[in-house]
Amino acid sequence: MAVLESPEKLSSVSIIFPAYNEQENITRSIQNAIKAFSKYFHTVTIIPVNDGGEDSTGEIIDTLAAFDERIKPVHHQYNQGYGAALRSGFAAAKNDYVFFSDSDGQFDLEEITRLLTYVDSYDLILGYRENRADPFHRRVNGWAWSSLVRFLFKIKVKDIDCAFKLFRRDIFDVIKLEAGGAMVNTELLALAKKRGFSMINVAVSHYPREAGEQTGANPFVILKAFYELFKLHAKIS
Protein backbone atom coordinates (compact mmCIF):
# COMPACT_ATOMS: atom_id res chain seq x y z
CA MET A 1 0.00 0.00 0.00
CA ALA A 2 1.20 3.46 -0.83
CA VAL A 3 1.96 5.60 2.21
CA LEU A 4 1.91 9.38 2.27
CA GLU A 5 5.42 10.77 2.75
CA SER A 6 6.26 14.37 3.73
CA PRO A 7 2.86 15.68 2.61
CA GLU A 8 2.14 19.30 1.88
CA LYS A 9 -0.46 20.44 4.39
CA LEU A 10 -4.07 20.53 3.25
CA SER A 11 -6.40 23.43 4.01
CA SER A 12 -8.80 22.44 6.77
CA VAL A 13 -10.63 19.48 8.29
CA SER A 14 -13.58 19.02 10.63
CA ILE A 15 -13.31 15.89 12.78
CA ILE A 16 -16.57 14.50 14.14
CA PHE A 17 -16.78 12.26 17.21
CA PRO A 18 -20.27 10.93 18.00
CA ALA A 19 -20.23 10.26 21.73
CA TYR A 20 -22.79 8.47 23.87
CA ASN A 21 -21.59 7.87 27.43
CA GLU A 22 -17.91 8.09 26.45
CA GLN A 23 -16.56 9.95 29.48
CA GLU A 24 -13.68 7.49 29.81
CA ASN A 25 -12.54 7.87 26.19
CA ILE A 26 -13.52 11.26 24.77
CA THR A 27 -10.61 13.33 26.10
CA ARG A 28 -7.99 10.94 24.75
CA SER A 29 -9.77 10.69 21.39
CA ILE A 30 -9.86 14.48 20.98
CA GLN A 31 -6.25 14.93 22.03
CA ASN A 32 -5.08 12.17 19.67
CA ALA A 33 -7.02 13.72 16.80
CA ILE A 34 -5.50 17.17 17.31
CA LYS A 35 -2.00 15.68 17.51
CA ALA A 36 -2.39 13.53 14.38
CA PHE A 37 -4.33 15.86 12.08
CA SER A 38 -2.38 19.02 12.88
CA LYS A 39 0.55 17.49 11.01
CA TYR A 40 -1.41 17.39 7.74
CA PHE A 41 -3.97 20.24 7.89
CA HIS A 42 -3.50 23.96 8.49
CA THR A 43 -6.83 24.21 10.33
CA VAL A 44 -8.26 21.44 12.52
CA THR A 45 -11.70 21.66 14.14
CA ILE A 46 -12.97 18.96 16.49
CA ILE A 47 -16.74 18.47 16.72
CA PRO A 48 -17.63 16.09 19.56
CA VAL A 49 -21.36 15.36 19.54
CA ASN A 50 -22.73 14.48 22.96
CA ASP A 51 -25.75 12.35 22.08
CA GLY A 52 -27.77 12.85 25.24
CA GLY A 53 -25.80 10.47 27.41
CA GLU A 54 -26.18 10.07 31.15
CA ASP A 55 -22.52 10.41 32.13
CA SER A 56 -20.09 13.37 32.16
CA THR A 57 -19.28 13.42 28.43
CA GLY A 58 -21.04 16.75 27.91
CA GLU A 59 -19.28 18.46 30.80
CA ILE A 60 -15.91 17.09 29.69
CA ILE A 61 -16.16 18.37 26.12
CA ASP A 62 -17.38 21.78 27.31
CA THR A 63 -14.40 22.03 29.66
CA LEU A 64 -12.00 21.08 26.88
CA ALA A 65 -13.60 23.64 24.57
CA ALA A 66 -13.17 26.38 27.15
CA PHE A 67 -9.39 25.95 26.87
CA ASP A 68 -9.10 25.16 23.14
CA GLU A 69 -11.03 27.08 20.50
CA ARG A 70 -10.51 24.25 18.00
CA ILE A 71 -13.06 22.16 19.92
CA LYS A 72 -16.69 22.94 19.03
CA PRO A 73 -19.08 20.75 21.05
CA VAL A 74 -22.59 19.86 19.90
CA HIS A 75 -25.15 18.64 22.43
CA HIS A 76 -28.35 16.62 22.04
CA GLN A 77 -30.77 17.08 24.91
CA TYR A 78 -31.75 13.42 24.68
CA ASN A 79 -30.34 10.35 22.97
CA GLN A 80 -31.21 10.46 19.26
CA GLY A 81 -28.98 7.72 17.89
CA TYR A 82 -25.70 7.34 16.05
CA GLY A 83 -27.01 8.60 12.73
CA ALA A 84 -28.51 11.71 14.27
CA ALA A 85 -25.22 12.43 16.05
CA LEU A 86 -23.30 12.16 12.80
CA ARG A 87 -25.82 14.34 10.95
CA SER A 88 -25.47 17.02 13.64
CA GLY A 89 -21.71 16.82 13.24
CA PHE A 90 -21.89 17.07 9.46
CA ALA A 91 -24.19 20.09 9.75
CA ALA A 92 -21.69 21.82 12.04
CA ALA A 93 -18.69 21.00 9.83
CA LYS A 94 -17.52 24.05 7.87
CA ASN A 95 -14.01 23.06 6.80
CA ASP A 96 -12.99 21.73 3.38
CA TYR A 97 -12.67 18.11 4.50
CA VAL A 98 -14.72 16.05 6.94
CA PHE A 99 -13.48 13.04 8.88
CA PHE A 100 -15.33 11.01 11.44
CA SER A 101 -14.46 8.28 13.87
CA ASP A 102 -15.93 6.79 17.01
CA SER A 103 -14.97 8.15 20.41
CA ASP A 104 -14.01 4.77 21.85
CA GLY A 105 -10.33 4.79 20.86
CA GLN A 106 -10.43 1.65 18.71
CA PHE A 107 -8.60 3.33 15.82
CA ASP A 108 -5.10 4.78 15.56
CA LEU A 109 -5.76 8.29 14.29
CA GLU A 110 -2.17 8.57 13.09
CA GLU A 111 -3.28 6.24 10.30
CA ILE A 112 -5.04 9.16 8.65
CA THR A 113 -1.93 9.12 6.43
CA ARG A 114 -3.27 5.96 4.79
CA LEU A 115 -6.37 7.84 3.66
CA LEU A 116 -4.59 11.05 2.70
CA THR A 117 -2.62 9.13 0.07
CA TYR A 118 -5.78 9.17 -2.04
CA VAL A 119 -7.19 12.58 -1.20
CA ASP A 120 -6.54 14.05 -4.66
CA SER A 121 -8.11 11.12 -6.52
CA TYR A 122 -11.34 10.20 -4.71
CA ASP A 123 -14.34 11.96 -3.19
CA LEU A 124 -14.81 9.47 -0.35
CA ILE A 125 -11.92 7.58 1.23
CA LEU A 126 -13.24 4.69 3.29
CA GLY A 127 -11.28 2.87 5.93
CA TYR A 128 -11.97 -0.81 6.47
CA ARG A 129 -10.94 -2.78 9.54
CA GLU A 130 -8.19 -5.09 8.36
CA ASN A 131 -8.52 -7.27 11.47
CA ARG A 132 -11.64 -6.26 13.36
CA ALA A 133 -10.96 -6.43 17.11
CA ASP A 134 -14.54 -6.93 18.28
CA PRO A 135 -16.33 -9.90 19.86
CA PHE A 136 -17.21 -12.74 17.48
CA HIS A 137 -20.94 -11.96 17.36
CA ARG A 138 -20.25 -8.35 16.33
CA ARG A 139 -17.91 -9.48 13.57
CA VAL A 140 -20.54 -11.90 12.26
CA ASN A 141 -23.26 -9.25 12.42
CA GLY A 142 -20.99 -6.78 10.64
CA TRP A 143 -20.16 -9.24 7.86
CA ALA A 144 -23.84 -10.12 7.34
CA TRP A 145 -24.92 -6.46 7.30
CA SER A 146 -22.18 -5.43 4.87
CA SER A 147 -23.02 -8.35 2.58
CA LEU A 148 -26.70 -7.41 2.53
CA VAL A 149 -25.95 -3.76 1.82
CA ARG A 150 -23.56 -4.62 -1.00
CA PHE A 151 -26.20 -6.88 -2.53
CA LEU A 152 -29.07 -4.38 -2.27
CA PHE A 153 -27.22 -1.26 -3.40
CA LYS A 154 -24.41 -2.73 -5.53
CA ILE A 155 -21.75 -0.71 -3.75
CA LYS A 156 -18.20 -2.05 -3.58
CA VAL A 157 -17.45 -1.16 0.03
CA LYS A 158 -15.63 -3.70 2.17
CA ASP A 159 -16.67 -2.47 5.62
CA ILE A 160 -19.86 -0.41 5.52
CA ASP A 161 -19.86 0.78 9.12
CA CYS A 162 -16.14 1.33 9.69
CA ALA A 163 -15.87 4.66 11.55
CA PHE A 164 -12.74 5.88 9.79
CA LYS A 165 -13.89 7.87 6.76
CA LEU A 166 -12.70 11.05 5.04
CA PHE A 167 -14.73 13.15 2.57
CA ARG A 168 -14.75 16.48 0.83
CA ARG A 169 -17.29 18.59 2.71
CA ASP A 170 -19.03 19.70 -0.47
CA ILE A 171 -20.50 16.24 -1.01
CA PHE A 172 -23.06 17.25 1.61
CA ASP A 173 -24.26 20.01 -0.69
CA VAL A 174 -25.93 17.29 -2.76
CA ILE A 175 -26.29 14.40 -0.29
CA LYS A 176 -29.00 14.89 2.32
CA LEU A 177 -29.01 12.29 5.08
CA GLU A 178 -32.11 11.28 7.03
CA ALA A 179 -31.12 8.14 8.96
CA GLY A 180 -31.23 8.54 12.71
CA GLY A 181 -29.64 5.23 13.64
CA ALA A 182 -26.93 2.82 12.58
CA MET A 183 -28.07 2.91 8.97
CA VAL A 184 -26.43 6.28 8.38
CA ASN A 185 -23.27 4.84 6.80
CA THR A 186 -25.31 2.79 4.35
CA GLU A 187 -27.42 5.81 3.42
CA LEU A 188 -24.35 7.96 2.89
CA LEU A 189 -22.59 5.44 0.66
CA ALA A 190 -25.70 4.45 -1.32
CA LEU A 191 -26.51 8.10 -2.06
CA ALA A 192 -22.89 8.85 -2.91
CA LYS A 193 -22.88 6.01 -5.44
CA LYS A 194 -26.17 7.20 -6.91
CA ARG A 195 -24.74 10.72 -7.28
CA GLY A 196 -21.63 9.39 -9.03
CA PHE A 197 -19.06 10.22 -6.37
CA SER A 198 -15.85 8.17 -6.45
CA MET A 199 -14.74 6.09 -3.47
CA ILE A 200 -11.91 3.80 -2.45
CA ASN A 201 -11.40 1.25 0.35
CA VAL A 202 -8.25 1.58 2.48
CA ALA A 203 -7.16 -0.87 5.20
CA VAL A 204 -6.74 0.51 8.72
CA SER A 205 -5.89 -1.07 12.06
CA HIS A 206 -8.52 -1.78 14.70
CA TYR A 207 -8.02 -2.32 18.42
CA PRO A 208 -10.14 -3.64 21.31
CA ARG A 209 -12.19 -1.15 23.28
CA GLU A 210 -10.42 -0.48 26.59
CA ALA A 211 -13.15 1.42 28.44
CA GLY A 212 -16.89 2.03 28.30
CA GLU A 213 -19.59 -0.12 26.74
CA GLN A 214 -20.57 -0.74 23.13
CA THR A 215 -24.19 -0.02 22.22
CA GLY A 216 -24.38 -1.02 18.55
CA ALA A 217 -25.69 -4.52 19.28
CA ASN A 218 -28.81 -3.24 21.04
CA PRO A 219 -31.82 -5.11 19.52
CA PHE A 220 -33.77 -1.86 19.09
CA VAL A 221 -30.81 -0.31 17.22
CA ILE A 222 -30.64 -3.34 14.92
CA LEU A 223 -34.38 -3.36 14.19
CA LYS A 224 -34.35 0.36 13.45
CA ALA A 225 -31.43 -0.14 11.07
CA PHE A 226 -33.32 -2.80 9.10
CA TYR A 227 -36.41 -0.60 8.90
CA GLU A 228 -34.37 2.31 7.57
CA LEU A 229 -32.47 0.00 5.21
CA PHE A 230 -35.51 -1.24 3.35
CA LYS A 231 -37.09 2.21 3.40
CA LEU A 232 -33.97 3.60 1.69
CA HIS A 233 -33.88 0.76 -0.83
CA ALA A 234 -37.48 1.43 -1.80
CA LYS A 235 -36.74 5.13 -2.12
CA ILE A 236 -33.68 5.02 -4.42
CA SER A 237 -33.95 1.69 -6.27
From TrEMBL:
<keyword id="KW-1003">Cell membrane</keyword>
<keyword id="KW-0448">Lipopolysaccharide biosynthesis</keyword>
<feature type="domain" description="Glycosyltransferase 2-like">
    <location>
        <begin position="14"/>
        <end position="173"/>
    </location>
</feature>
<dbReference type="InterPro" id="IPR050256">
    <property type="entry name" value="Glycosyltransferase_2"/>
</dbReference>
<keyword id="KW-1133">Transmembrane helix</keyword>
<dbReference type="GO" id="GO:0005886">
    <property type="term" value="C:plasma membrane"/>
</dbReference>
<keyword id="KW-0812">Transmembrane</keyword>
<dbReference type="InterPro" id="IPR001173">
    <property type="entry name" value="Glyco_trans_2-like"/>
</dbReference>
<dbReference type="GO" id="GO:0009103">
    <property type="term" value="P:lipopolysaccharide biosynthetic process"/>
</dbReference>
<dbReference type="Pfam" id="PF00535">
    <property type="entry name" value="Glycos_transf_2"/>
</dbReference>
<keyword id="KW-0328">Glycosyltransferase</keyword>
<dbReference type="InterPro" id="IPR029044">
    <property type="entry name" value="Nucleotide-diphossugar_trans"/>
</dbReference>
<keyword id="KW-0808">Transferase</keyword>
<keyword id="KW-0472">Membrane</keyword>
<dbReference type="GO" id="GO:0099621">
    <property type="term" value="F:undecaprenyl-phosphate 4-deoxy-4-formamido-L-arabinose transferase activity"/>
</dbReference>
<protein>
    <submittedName>
        <fullName>Cell wall biosynthesis glycosyltransferase</fullName>
    </submittedName>
</protein>
